[in-house]
Amino acid sequence: MLRSRIEEQSNLICMLKQRADETLLRCQTLEQVNTELESLRVNMQKELQNEQEKSEQQEQRFMDLAANHKELINFKDEYKQKNAKLMKENQRLREENEKLFSKELQEKEETIYKLSQELSDLNEKHRQSEKECQFEREAAAVNAELRVKQLQHALHKAEQTYTDLKKGFEAYKKYSSDLLAQEKELNAKLRHLGI
Fold first, then answer.
1. What is the 3-state secondary structure (H, E, C) of the chain?
2. Were 176 and a residue from 23, 28, 129, 164 both cysteine, which residue would form a disulfide, CB within 3.0 to 4.6 Å?
3. How far is residue 40's CA from residue 33's CA, in Å, rounded to a whole number?
4. Could you give all domains of the chain from N- to C-terminal order, each with its CATH number?
5. Cβ neighbours of residue 16 under 8 Å, at least 6 residues apart?
6. How far is it, in rounded angstroms, from Cα 155 to Cα 43?
7. Alpha-carbon torsion (71, 74, 75, 76), positive or negative
8. pLDDT of 37-74, one tens digit each?
9. How confident is the model over 144-162, as pLDDT tens digits?
10. φ, ψ dihedrals at 98, nearest 5°
11. Please, what is the Cα angle at 12 between 14 and 6, to 5 degrees?
């Protein structure tokens, strides 16, 4: 009967040792997964920072475009002022010369016509530039916001997975510790029995 009990205790010890080995292997695997997830989290944070820097660069570019638009508007206003001045001068000459169609008046009319054409061209360029700027700004803002949201979601998911695995790892460590404690207790009992 004592031999049967010894065999039973020996089988139990072997089973517990096997479980402890399996638990240790799982813990090592979890540690490797945790390391990989931590590396992934760091890489995602770097990528998120890079995207934010790109977004800031694009914002700076839009500010530069806005400054260029302001210069274009000022240039257009100067043309308007010149045009208004020339028109006023033209009217004065018309009143002075009445029906006399002088060469000077003709030159000023040609200048007014050219300035009007240039002003029209500038207005068209300004409208096209505003459309292009608005389209690029809206498209870049949407892309940057979408990319940031995707990275934030991926980062949150990775951190959640890391937290869950860490909890599982702690549970396995406790389970392994309990098994080792049971093994020590059984060994102590066996030594007490003189085996």
1. CHHHHHHHHHHHHHHHHHHHHHHHHHHHHHHHHHHHHHHHHHHHHHHHHHHHHHHHHHHHHHHHHHHHHHHHHHHHHHHHHHHHHHHHHHHHHHHHHCCCCCHHHHHHHHHHHHHHHHHHHHHHHHHHHHHHHHHHHHHHHHHHHHHHHHHHHHHHHHHHHHHHHHHHHHHHHHHHHHHHHHHHHHHHHHHHHCC
2. 23
3. 10
4. 2-193 (1.10.287)
5. 179, 182, 183, 186
6. 10
7. positive
8. 888 888 888 888 888 888 888 888 878 887 888 888 88
9. 788 778 888 877 887 887 7
10. 50, -115
11. 105
Token code pair at residue 147: 């990319």
Q: Which amino acid is at 174?
A: K
